[in-house]
Structure formats: C-alpha cells, structure tokens
Amino acid sequence: MGAAMETFYSVIRRQGITRRSFHKFCSLTATSLGLEPLAADRIANALETKPRVPVIWMHGLECTCCSESFIRSAHPLAKDAVLSMISLDYDDTIMAAAGHQAEAILKETRAKHKGQYILAVEGNPPLNEGGMFCIDGGKPFLEKLKMMADDAMAIIAWGACASWGCVQAAKPNPTQATPIDKVITNKPIIKVPGCPPIAEVMTGVITFITTFGKLPELDRHGRPKMFYSQRIHDKCYRRSHFDAGQFVEEWDDEAARKGYCLYKMGCKGPTTYNACSTVRWNGGVSFPIQSGHGCIGCSEDGFWDKGSFYDRLTNIKQFGIEKNADQIGVAAAAAVGAAVAVHAAMTAVKRLASKRADANQDR
Amino acid sequence: MRIQTPNGFKLDNSGKRIVVDPVTRIEGHMRLEVNVDANNVIRNAVSTGTMWRGIEVILKDRDPRDAWAFTERICGVCTGTHALTSVRAVENALGITIPENANSIRNLMQLALQVHDHVVHFYHLHALDWVDVVSALSADPRATSTLAQSISNWPLSSPGYFKDLQTRLKKFVESGQLGPFKNGYWGSKAYKLPPEANLMAVAHYLEALDFQKEIVKIHTIFGGKNPHPNWLVGGVPCPINVDGTGAVGAINMERLNLISSIIDRLIEFNEQVYLPDVAAIGSFYKDWLYGGGLSGKSVLTYGDVPEHANDYASKNLKLPRGAIINGNLSEVFPVDHANTDEIQEFVVHSWYKYPDETKGLHPWDGVTEPNYVLGPNAKGTKTAIEQLDEGGKYSWIKAPRWRGHAMEVGPLARWVVGYAQNKAEFKDPVDKFLKDLDLPLSALFSTLGRTAARALESVWAGRQMRYFQDKLVANIKAGDSSTANVDKWKPEGWPKEAKGFGFTEAPRGALAHWIKIKETKIDNYQCVVPTTWNGSPRDPKGNIGAFEASLIDTPMMNPEQPLEILRTIHSFDPCLACSTHVMSPDGRELASVKVR
Known about the structure:
The structure holds 2 protein chains of 2 kinds.
Chain A: H1 8-14, H2 19-32, H3 38-49, E1 53-59, H4 65-70, H5 78-85, E2 86-91, H6 99-112, E3 117-122, E4 135-136, E5 139-140, H7 141-150, E6 152-158, H8 159-163, E7 189-192, H9 199-212, H10 225-228, H11 239-243, H12 254-258, H13 322-330, H14 335-362
Parallel strand pairs in A: 1-2, 1-3, 3-6, 6-7
Antiparallel strand pairs in A: 4-5
Helix pairs in contact in A: 2-3, 13-14
Chain B: E1 2-4, E2 10-12, E3 16-20, E4 30-36, E5 42-49, H1 55-59, H2 67-72, H3 81-94, H4 100-126, H5 141-151, H6 159-174, H7 195-215, H8 217-223, H9 253-284, E6 299-301, E7 304-306, E8 317-319, E9 322-324, E10 343-346, E11 379-381, E12 384-387, E13 399-402, H10 411-420, H11 424-436, H12 447-477, E14 497-506, E15 509-518, E16 521-528, H13 530-534, H14 546-551, H15 563-570
Antiparallel strand pairs in B: 1-2, 3-4, 4-5, 6-9, 7-8, 10-13, 11-12, 14-15, 15-16
C-alpha cells in the first residue's frame, strides 16, 4: 500500500465525470474567483497530480457539535468529502484506531507530510491546572496541539471554541480555556466560528482549500469573507417586518404566528456575522429566526457574556437607542431609513463597546 | 493485589497493565487502563474521564431562561437533551406549565435525537468494533446481495450495488490514504464476520452517514438548526399557523408534511436496515457474550416521553422509570430526584475535594472544588501520566450512587426495567430478538445485549414519533394552536427563592439537572449525566462503576490491540464532555501553563 496515491482528478473521473467536464469545472472555478485564464490550467494540473490533502482533526475542550455539524453536510456529502476530497487521517471521533495506534498516526503525519497537512482544531486548550483539565495520551492537550501545529501547512479553527473560546471560556472561565490563535502564533489560522458552524460552510471552507490550493480570503478577524462578511440581519427574510416596524411582542402571539421580526424578543441577528439567513441550516431547511427563536449570536466573540439571549439589543441602555425600536413600532412607515441607520450605528457602537470590555478584561 | 468489590467483582491488578489513551470513537476525552492475567483475560479495569469544563459554575448568576443554551453545549452529540432537561428544571422550580402541543413537539425532538444518536452510534462509533472493513474487499458481491435480501426488504441490495461499492472501497484502500480507517485492527481474529457481512455493513455505514442528516431536520424545523436547536422555557419557540396570514413563518402544512415524510423514512431505515444489521452481526458473535458488568445487577432509569404535558409521574411516561438492584428483576424501586438520600455523588477517587470524602452529597447541595492529585502508586508525572493509581484519585468524573449502589444507565437499563415491569412493548421485542438468535434471557446482559437494546429502542422511538406527530395534528385540528405559556415569562412575578429539577432519558441514559434560583438568577446548578453514572470511578466502599465492571473477565485476543476493550466500552456510547461540575465559586488561583 502507499504506492498509488489517489488524486482529486482520478476520484472525480471514476465518479463518471469526463475530462471535458473536468476542464470546464476548472475554468468556471477560475472565472468565479476572478483569476486570469491561465489559472484554470494550474488548478487542473494541481487536481490531476496531487494526492488528497491529509487532515488531522483534533479535539480539545469542546462538545463535538462541530464534528456533528460536519457530517450533516449535504453538498458535498460528508461521505464524499472524507472518502474523495481529503484524507482524514486522524479524528478521535470517528477513527478506527485508538491508543498507541492512534498516536502513531500523528507521528507518521509529521514525518511524512511535514508542512503539507491541514490541522483542523475543534475545541480549545485549558491553561489552568497545568493544562490537565484536558488530558490526551496522559499529557496536556495543549502539548499535542502545539506539536501538531508546528508542522502543519495551515490551521482551521472550527467553531466558537477554537475561534473565540465559547461556553467554557464564558465568565469566569474556570479552566482558562483559550482560543487557539492565542497559543499558536506561527501559522495561518482560518476561523470558522459558530456553535457549531453551518455544515456546508465547513465543507465549503475545506474544499475551497483542496480545490484551489490556497486559503480563502479572510477578514481582519481571520474569518472567510465568503461566509462571514454580512450580518444575519442584512439578509434576513423577516427584514421587511423590521423595516415596517412589525414585531413579535410575546412568544406565540399573533405577530409570532405571522412571522414578524424577533428583534424585541432579543434577536442578535443585527450584530451577528454569519451565513444563516442565506445558506440556512441542514440542507436549507430553516434557520433559528425562521423557526421562531431569535438569533443568539453564536458566531460572535464572547456571545455568552453579552447579557440574556432575550434582552433586546436596545436594552443596553448606554447605547441610548431604547426608544428607537418602539418608535419604529408606532411610526412604521417613516422608519425605514431610520431603522437602517439605527441598527448600523448600533452595531458599530456595540462592537466598540465589546472591544473595550475585552481590553479591560485583559488588563 | 486481589480484592472483591462490595458489588461483586473480583479484581486483580498483578498482571500486565495496558493503557488505552486516547479512547477514540467517543464524545470527549477518556483513558482506560486494564490489567490482564497470563491468559490475557482482563482482571482489573480503571476508567478515567480526562476532561473538565466547569459549565455549572459558569451558570451561576445567569438568567435561568438562558440556562438551556449553556447546558445544551455540554454535548453536541446528544444535542438538545440537556436543553430539554434544563427547561424542565426551570419550569419545575418556577411552577410553569407548557401547552399540550409543546409537549408533543418536545417529544418529537427528543425522539428524533434518540433515533439519530442510536443510528450514528451504531454505524459510526461502534460498527468498526464488529466489522472488518478490509475483509469486505474479498467479499463476493452476489453472495452479499443474497445475504442482504435474506434479512431485509431494503431495496439497495443488488449484486451490482455491492460490486460498485466494493470497487470504490478497493480504490480507496489502494490509494494508500486510508483516512479514518488508518491503523485499524483489520485482520484481527477478534473479527468474526464473513467478508459478505462485512461488505454489507460497510455499505450501510455509508448509507447511514447519508441518512442521519435527514433525521435531524426535525430539529431544524422546530428549533431552527442542528446541532444545537433552540428551546424555550414555557413551551417551544416555533409557533403554529397552518393556514392563516403569514403561515410560511410558522409550523404549517408543508412543515408538517416534511416531518411526516422524515418519520416514514426513519421508521423504514430502523426496521429494514438498523435492526436487521444488529441481528445479523449478533448472530456471528453469539459466543462473545462478555461485557455485562452491572447490567444484570443494578440499573437505573428516570423515564421520559410524557404522554400528556406537565405530568412527570411514572405512569404518564412512555419510557420506563425505576431502579433495580442486586439483580432482582422482580422488584423495581421508585426513584425520587428530590429525596436527598437517593442520588448522591462521591469524590474520594475523583479530582475534587469534599470536607468529608466518606460521605456523598445530593446535587442540590453539591460542591465541587478541583483537586488534581495523583495517587502514591501512579507512574510518570502530573503532566505526563504513564500509569494511574486507582487507589488514589484518578478521574475528572465524580461517582454518583443511588442509595449507595453503582448503577448502569442507558438503553439496556431502560429495556431491562421495561422488561421487569412486564410492559409488552419492551418485553416482546426483547424476547423476539433473543428467540431469533436462539439465545437465553441471560444473554441480554452483555455488550451485545446493550447494542441490541439500542437498536430495539430506535425502532420503538420511530413508532412513537409517528404517534406524537399524529397527536400534534389531531390537537391542531381540534382548534389548539398554542405552543408557549408566557404567564411567568417575566421574572417580576417569580418567588424570591425557588428550587427544582428536570430529568430526561438521554440517548446514553438517565440525565437530570438540579437548579436553585435566588432573586431571579441561578444560585446553584448541578447536572448528573449518563456518563457520570456509567464512567464513574470507585466510591469510598470500593464499588466499581459500569465501565469498569463491564471489562472484568473479558479475554483479549491480542493485548496490543484493544479491540475487545473498545467494543465493550463503545457499547455504552460514552460522552465525556458531560463530566462537568461546579467548582468553588470564589475561583481560586490554579497552576497555569505558560503559552509562549
């Protein structure tokens, strides 16, 4: 074994895709990315000759919701991603091997694929108690994480845990759970936040890398722009009700049954950057707002510590815009322009405020 | 050293020590150490939870209405069950009732989780303990087709189907990049299936991977996403509007139809793929009836799936409730979460500190202060453990006991209690399964029995989903569209102090949360979760927990390959992220590692 490495090209060929279609795919891909025509050939060449990219998927303090989300992917199917697009050589949650046989894979990967594998991290390391709030192979998880990061090509931080810290890092963060970019500083890290991230966003990020041989374009927080550059509110299908001042006032009231805006019920859509209102969840079936509950902002840094999930964003009095949401309700028609301005300003203020809070905390 | 535990197990730690760390194909982090004798039979077992997150301390002083979202993040595999337990605890403390529709919807979500979790557990976390993937390459596709058609009407069973699958598998293996199958125990004599059964099982591994994502769409419809759908104290967040203005923003006819079609498909998958597979695989492992552990002695189930809203009494619950001790199936004891003498947690062998560690504490009075020390006979250092000392502290999991007894929880516990209570819907399928395999009732108390109970329960849960879907529609038809009770939504009317508990049967077993509320905020929150019961370390009297008990006396084919250990431990479906407990609220300074 080991002689005949399977490439992406041979995989898709045996799945019945013709050579002609393959080249068409490469051209379209290049065009859709705004690359020059020659790029299509480079993409084709890479896909024809490269073995599947080894992926090492490690788990720190987490709840495994990211892995569970990943296997929900409808396009590509998780089955095809794992069998044909990447080589998932290590993942504690699904791998056949355990103990020594599992540990041996990590050693082999570092030796054989130095600088060529993707390290996908779900969860984060705790720093308290010498790191022993998360033990792996008798040692602190942190040690294993740093060892595997050293020889990785790039790192994917899956979910809110690896990206920001998530629930175990919520105040008072008893284990000192720490996002991975605070402990690994020598490698590119792609943050894919959410609790968990959307399945097709996860497979989208990973197949982008294997397909185009480069990392996706990231925003200043390290998130792929393609999925995290707009707020849920920007593309929410209930947005027209916000603009028209039509709000749910109480659970299961007439407005709730009509699908009005959940802003007054604490929806964090106006301050949350994610693709829920466009990609939606579980093959496009729904997303939180569509199913009647406000967004809890699970892809945002520190979302556990920003007050109750049911506090209206405007309840945060220092923003001084408590009145605006109610005025919108009264003067619906006049409010369209104002509402847009209000929530845009609010977002900006809120971001600044939370940054300041973080800074204070660090001190 | 040879000892006899009070709960009836002979332990001997004089033989060779084998360490499995990490234990994979589970949720979270776990370590196992066993001693084998000269014949490679396991004579001592030490199970260690190797992670701790402290979610309960994080809950202190928060809004009780938010607690479901925090506790839901205890586990993303059994997603939703902690949230349901949490909203029940808050409702119990504050005296909040929920509408009948909310009860049906919660049951549909909880049952969808049972089916999803059981299917994914069997195929993706457990099957590779029974199925040799590489052996499937030498199967005859035609004979595989004959085998498949002999056990089920499932349509994906033609020789061509299996041949295509085998070709794909062959190319995958020949690529040299084995991915998740790398370094598996392929070719071990501990695998007993013929190549054809292996090929059929691999086909269903992949089909189940495709299908599981459909099951959870029921969570997405009612809760907006999966994993981690949204819940609500006082009901469910999704309103019902079948034909009025804006019906597209609520549960309408299209949504009800989608739910219905998913239920039809999962019933079909359970009955034509999952259960027949377990029976077929079981028929080749009839001689391997190890792993019974506590299941024939002491089992505990809280019960779940209320027929009517707001009644959590035993006779209103469709999943059985009760405790059996000392293997006496003729007596099922009642269980009371509020009785401080019943459920207690001990820490003498856990990395926590109590003022008096000979005594246990009821969760309402639970304290947890981390105390990470190794026993005097441990090998290695505190941050590079080579071998643990089970005579000292050795796990991040506490040891819960029911009236002093170590208990097994989970599907097998539920089905044993249902069987003991002589309930036909539990007794008949067990009897039929055993009869088809020509096995006695005693065979139920084994690793195989645990795996079979889970499959039987998935079938049961699928049919219950049909029942509650019909009930939901009938209730809407009768004019009731209510999904939430907002009478006590606002904290203004809450009592100054309140306490309560909520319980469910998570896929992995009995789960309960205890809450104390003071001045509208959480004062104390404690969860005792299934893997705390099953994975518990020893208690002050030396009773061993369910994981440890299940491994005793199991022969290993090859001690270098922990296949038998994994097979039995996986049959519990361990969930280690659940071992979360509160620490001293003053947040004492702990040793910290430098990161740069």
